[in-house]
Amino acid sequence: MNEKEKAKEIIKILNKIYPTTPIPLKHRNKFTLLTSVLLSAQCTDLNVNNVTKNIYPKYNRPEHFVKLGRKKIEKLIKSIGIFRVKAKSIFLMSKQLLEKHQGKVPKTFEELEKLPGVGHKTARWLCHKVLDYRHLQWTPIYTD
Hints:
By secondary structure, the chain is mainly alpha-helical. It has a single domain (25-129), classed as Endonuclease III, domain 1, CATH 1.10.340.
């Protein structure tokens, strides 16, 4: 058995032992999960959950955040680090989801990565955890 075959066998065994890992970020749908992941940059999941518990009951779709505008989003997330940058990303991401994706979170890595505020790591994580891309040849390794 060569190294590549050993690695595949190890991954298969680990997937049996640990079939799913719970997502620590509280969310209502794919959009709120994506939003929470953006908010979690340089911030704890606990802090994100504390902030979003007051936001998601009322605002949980892209059109809600576009209607709010950047300044109001900033006020809602002010207790999270780099909130101005994150508010801008959430606003622009929401706008792009409405304009190019009918308000839905894209289903491909390439489309996810084109969204404002969504980098390579976030797109990969979402593909793996939310869009169930576990069949792909790569296995993501998360560092946060």
